[in-house]
Amino acid sequence: MMSVAKEIFTSLSDRPKNLSNLQWLHYDDEGSIIFEKIVLQDEYYITRSERRIFELNSDDIIVKAAGDEKNRLRIAELGSGTATKTGILLRAALKYQRGPITYFPIDVSTTALDEAQSSLNYLLPDVCVMPQVKNYVTDDFILPSFDGCTLVIYIGVSIGNSSKEEAKNILHHVYEQLKVGDALLLSVDMCHDPSVLLSTYNDKNGVVADFQFNVLRRLNREFGYNFNLDQFRYQPIWNEHKSSVEQHLQSLCSQQVKCIDQFGEKTLHFDKGETINMIDSYKFSIEEINMLLNITGFTIEHIWNDEHKWINVILARKL
Ligand SMILES: C[S@@+](CC[C@H](N)C(=O)[O-])C[C@H]1O[C@@H](n2cnc3c(N)ncnc32)[C@H](O)[C@@H]1O
Fold it and tell me: Is-above-0.90 flag for pTM?
């Protein structure tokens, strides 16, 4: 397998330059802090809508996910972050279970997991938090066997940050960790008005832009690059063909960027106007998501959505 350093350099040497296959690079300590600011921006309806769906439906979601009144439940979450919204579901799960519940948050960010653990320990002491610092794209996360129903949560519309192939691999791995009858709760952002979608990733405070620039700062800090951030500008683009908001950094001039690491010195060339696609945010139709779930072994059982039907929270089952 290619090392991360090599994959980064290869992706930046390609034409077009593309780091979207390494979207998790966004979530170092600084990136995780910036993400918490993104969700507070007026333009970022995703978190508000998803939270509202959970507030209105958490009991229903948990009862339907558990499937059978007698089923004991446990919850695992991919890319839990600080688990702020998940707290709403965990509260409903405690009510359903009438006793303690085990929760496995899985995330690349230690900072986010530490915060999730300390806030849940304080707010919901009956939740037994078992964090796993893992990259769910490149590492195997393992759930211990369990004699009840496992609900895997994958929310924050995070599946939209993966290519279709990567999304399939992630869901396939979830499938392998579950037994027949276990459940998956997946949230997706649907394809709708491109101007609304674009503005979600182009907030007036420039926080999403800063989230992208932080990746260049991280490459400078950890991977030996010397990007001059002043020579780039943020440019989000709606790619109709891919149904994705691509978040690019565009070079303002013709320039060389050096990378000095243990393998020596290498140079990247940027033409004036050339861009790096830093991350994709794919938007879905219900047919696409249905197909993705079917080919990875899940069947949709129920969908909750917001007033605009932009965010779909989907309960699917391994049959
Ligand atoms: C869009 S945020 C969502 C956070 C939270 N679930 C929410 O709904 O607000 C994505 C989270 O997934 C984590 N993440 C992204 N890619 C990951 C990967 N490949 N493996 C593990 N965690 C990842 C990030 O650290 C971040 O906490």
Answer: yes
